TrEMBL record:
The lineage of its organism: Bacteria, Pseudomonadati, Pseudomonadota, Alphaproteobacteria, Hyphomicrobiales. It comes from the Bacteria. Belongs to the short-chain dehydrogenases/reductases (SDR) family. PANTHER family: BLL7886 PROTEIN (PTHR42760:SF135), SHORT-CHAIN DEHYDROGENASES/REDUCTASES FAMILY MEMBER (PTHR42760). It comes from Bradyrhizobium elkanii. This is NAD(P)-dependent dehydrogenase (Short-subunit alcohol dehydrogenase family).
Length: 226
């Protein structure tokens, strides 16, 4: 991945930080975009754009264009930004469904649309989305989240068909990721079976690499040691 210019959304989160670190270690140039503020000083190989609301089309487009201008090109987009909620359908708030759709589907849609003109110029453009294994068969309390991630799956497939021969578009579908937040939420769980952020980063960066040039439209489960 040496020299490739990669945008990572949700770059200041638990998974985003690991993916960014691993990408930089492989010689990629990384632009991190996040809703949280960033104090990182920009360098030729690494910038962070904080305070960006990716549910807003204009803000998403401006951030992607700024990243592409900084590097003079864009070769990959890794859409990690998103959200999670656990809420029953019967007594839940309909606004939760709208929020999950905005955070998980619209963020990926807005950044992908903004990145397409840059990625098609790359000759090896890549888009990698984060779906969810739990969206293949949703459990109780997972309705709003699973429905939104199912939307990410369909977005991935549709965009892959639309951009075939120009940009590859794939999604990874993790099970439970071993993060501090998940450990706190599920203190009695067997974390040895969870997928680690580094393991997930390996799969994501493979899909962003030249080695994955023949893979597009894939929904790839990453389910740890079940």
């Amino acid at each position: 991945m040496h020299g490739k210019a990669i945008v990572i959304t949700g770059a200041l989160g638990a998974l985003g930080k690991v993916v960014a670190t691993e990408a930089l270690a492989r010689g990629a140039r990384v632009a991190g975009i996040d809703h949280a503020a960033s104090t990182l000083a920009a360098t030729a190989d690494h910038i962070e754009l904080g305070g960006v609301d990716l549910t807003d089309t204009a803000q998403a487009t401006a951030a992607i264009d700024k990243a592409a201008a900084h590097f003079g090109r864009l070769d990959g987009l890794i859409n990690i930004a998103g959200g999670f909620t656990f809420e029953a359908v019967s007594d839940g708030d309909p606004a939760t469904w709208q929020r999950m759709y905005a955070m998980n589907v619209m963020t990926a849609l807005n950044t992908s649309r903004a990145a397409i003109p840059h990625l098609t110029k790359s000759g090896a453009g890549r888009i990698i989305n984060i779906g969810a294994l739990g969206a293949l068969q949703a459990a109780s309390g997972m309705g709003p989240y699973a429905a939104s991630k199912a939307g990410v799956h369909r977005l991935t497939e549709s965009l892959a068909a639309e951009l075939k021969g120009k940009v590859t578009v794939n999604a990874v579908l993790p099970s439970i990721i071993d993060t501090a937040a998940n450990r706190a939420a599920m203190p009695k769980a067997d974390i040895s079976k969870w997928v680690t952020p580094k393991e997930l980063a390996e799969v994501i960066l493979f899909l962003a690499s030249d080695a994955a040039s023949a893979v597009t439209g894939a929904l790839l489960p990453v389910n740890g040691r079940v």
